[in-house]
C-alpha cells in the first residue's frame, strides 16, 4: 500500500479562493492586533446587542466545478430564442476580440472608477472615445460617459430640462411613441417632483404648456418623423426638446442635433453589449454646450499633466455630482463604465462605415420582410421605417405569436390585434423566412430586390466619427494591441490591492464570472415570455432568498441598477407606505453629516426635505441631536438614512436607539447597506431595527466594479413595505418602475449567486471576520504613523479605517501628495477626503493576503518617513518625491536636477523593480481641465506624446 488512510491530506481550500490570509498568516496578524483569536477580535469589535444569535445557514458550500455544473443546469432552463421584440433591446454581435480582451478581461473589469486619473488613462481614453462617438452620432456638443439605462436617462433628461428651461411651465410632454418602460419610468420620477406628465401624439403637443418634451426616434412601433417643427415650437416657448434615439439608426438618419434638439438620450446596448435579460447596458446622454454644466453622470475631459502633456481625467462638476448632497442634480454614482467601454470599442472596431453597413443591412432586411408581408396582403405600418415594423393581424395575433415561437422567434404583441417586429445585426435571411412562415407565407429571401424605405428628408447628410481613432487599421492584431495598450496604462485589481474605503474592492473570482458570458444568460430579451426564462426566475428567486436570510429582510427587489438607485427605490417604497397610511405629510428625512452624498441626493429626488444630523467628536451619530430633530419633525418625519457600520468605520452602539427613536415618531429607517461586508453572518440589518436597505452587489457580493459600473443595488425590505416595492409595466406591481428592465441587470446576478453558493454560510461569515481582521491589522501597523481617526469602544475598527493626514499640512504635505506617491509604490490610493476632508479611508477586504497588506503598510510607512524628512528640513518643502509624484519614465530619462536621487523618486523602498507600474502621465492638473472643458477626442497631434 503506497500510503495509509491516515496519510490522506484534508482538502480545505474551498474558501481559500476568496479569503486572502492563510491560517498561519492570520495567526501572525492576530498577534500584531493583540487578540487571542479571530472570534475574540470580533467580540471586541461588534457590539453584543446587534449580533445574530444563530450562524448563517445556507447549506453546504459548493466547489467551483459543482458550482459550474449547477449553473449549467439553471442556465439550461432559459431558452435562447431569436428575439425580435425590440423596444430598445436588440440582439447584437459582440466581436470576439472585444468579448475576450475586454468583457472577460480582469484588467478591464476589475478597475475602479477613474478618480485617480494618473492610473486610469486607458479607460479614460476608451470612455472619451465613447463620448466622442455619442456626440458625433447625435450631433450634439457634449456627451457623458454613460448612465444606467435608457429609461433612467429619459428621466434624467427631463429633470435637466426642468432645471435648464426658461419656461415656467410645470408639465412635461412625452411622445406616446416612446417605449412603454420609458414612459413608466418618467412617470415614477416626475410624481415626487410635482411634474405633470402629458402623454400624447407629437401633433397634440402644446409647447406653451410644458418646460420640455421627449420624442422617441424611431418610435416604439417603428415610426420615423422629423421633430424639427415641434422642437422649434418648444424653443419659441423657451422649453427644451429631447430626443430618445437609437444610435445605430443615427448612422443612416438625420441626427437630433440637426433637428435642433437640446438633449438626446438612448441605449448603446446594440453596440456589442449582450441583451442579458435587460442589462447591464450603457445609456448615453448628450446635450448642447449650454446645458453641459448640469449633465448628470460622469464626463471625461482632457487636461494637462505636470509635464504639460495632454492627460484625461473626469471633469470637475461631474466628478461626483452627488457630492453636492441635497443640492445635487442627480444621484448617479456608479454608472455603466465597462459597457460603455465595450460599446466604444465596438465603434472603433467597425468604424463609421462599418456601423453604417450594419445599419443598412438591417434596414434592407426589414424592407424585404415588410414587402413580403405586404405582398401576402398584410397591412404593415409604418410606411417608412428603419428596423421596426408593426403588422395588423386582427384576431390572428395569438396564432402568429405562437407560430413564431415554434420557429424559435419572439415577436412583440402590440395591443390585441397587431404584432411588432424589430430586426437586428444577428438577423439572417433564414430568420426573415421563418418570420414569414409564422404569418403563413412561404417564400425565399432571395427573390426581392433591395430597396430603401427611409424618408428622403430624414436621410443623414452629415459626417460622424471622423476622428482617427475610428479609422485605425482594424486588423485584429491592431485591435488586440490597442485594447492591451489601454489596459496596460491602468492599475486594476489584477495588479495590486485597491484599498478603497466604502467601495469593497474584493476578488471577483473567475468561476463567478464565467456564466455571465453564456448565451443562456446573455442572449435573453428582457420581455421574453415567462416560460423561456425559468432559469433566470430560479436564479433571481434563490438569490433573493439568500439575501433575505443574510440581511433579515422579508422581501427583495432586484430592480435598482446601483446603490444610489436602491436608495431612491427604497425611499419611494417608504413614501408609498406613508401614502397608503394617509400620511402624505411625512416629508422630512434625517441624514447624518457623514452620509454618502448619494443619500441626500436620492432624498431630494423623492421630494423629501433633508434635515442634517450632527456627529459627535468620536464620529458617532449625535443621538441627542437626532432625537431633537426627530421630535421637531414629529408627524412630518418620513425616514432617516443611516449607514451601518458607519462611514467612519465603526460599529456604533447606538444604532438600535436611533432606529427606535425614528419609529417612535412614525418614521422608517433606511439603512445604507454599502458596508454590509462588515456584517454578513454577524449581524442582520433587518433584525436591528432597519426597515429597508440597499445592498451593493458590486461591493459586498463580488460583481466587479468595471471601472465605474455595472452595479446592482437591490433593496431588502421588511414585510410591511413589500407591497410598495417598485413594479414594472411588464411584471406587475402597484408602484412604478425605477429601471427600464423588471430585474435591473440580471446577467450579472450569477456572479453574486455563485459567490454565496461557493462560500456557504460559514465561508461568508469567515469572510466578514477576516475583512475586519485585515482592517484592524492595517490600523495597528499604521497607527503610530497616521492617527486612526475613529475607533469603537474597545479600540477596534470595523472593516475599514480612516487615516488622518491633516497634521502633515504644516509641512505642506496634502492628502493628494500621499495618494500620488502611492502610485510610485504601485498602489491605487485609498478613498480620499471622504467622509472626512484631508483623510484617507482604507478598506482592505478579506481577499488581500498578509503579504499584500504588508506591502501597502510598508509603502505608507515609507511615505511617512519622507514626510518626516521634509518636517526635519532634510528634504525640500516644494521639491520632494511627494510633491513630484507620480514619477514617470519621462522624469526618469529627462535631465535630473532634483534634490533626491532618481532611485528614490522612481523606485521607493518596497516598490517592485521588474514589475514596476509606470503611470503614463505625471500629476494631472484638474483646475486647468475644468477651465478648458474638452470632452471629445482632441485632434491626434495634440496628444501624440501622451499616447506614445
Ligand atoms: C458606494 C456607496 C453608495 C452608492 O452606491 P452606487 O452603487 O455607487 O450608486 C452609497 N452609499 C455608500 C455608503 C457607498 O459606499
From TrEMBL:
Cofactor: pyridoxal 5'-phosphate
Domain of life: Bacteria
Domain Glycine dehydrogenase C-terminal: 767-887
A Pfam cross-reference name: GcvP2_C
This protein's record includes keyword Transcription regulation: no
Gene3D superfamilies attached to this UniProt entry: Aspartate Aminotransferase, domain 1, Type I PLP-dependent aspartate aminotransferase-like (Major domain)
Catalysed reactions, as listed in the record: N(6)-[(R)-lipoyl]-L-lysyl-[glycine-cleavage complex H protein] + glycine + H(+) = N(6)-[(R)-S(8)-aminomethyldihydrolipoyl]-L-lysyl-[glycine-cleavage complex H protein] + CO2
Residue stretches making up the Glycine cleavage system P-protein N-terminal domain: 16-439, 465-727
GO molecular function list: glycine binding; glycine dehydrogenase (decarboxylating) activity; pyridoxal phosphate binding
Family: Belongs to the GcvP family.
HAMAP family per the UniProt record, alphabetical: GcvP
Protein name (database record): Glycine dehydrogenase (decarboxylating)
Protein species of origin: Meridianimarinicoccus roseus
The gene coding this protein: gcvP
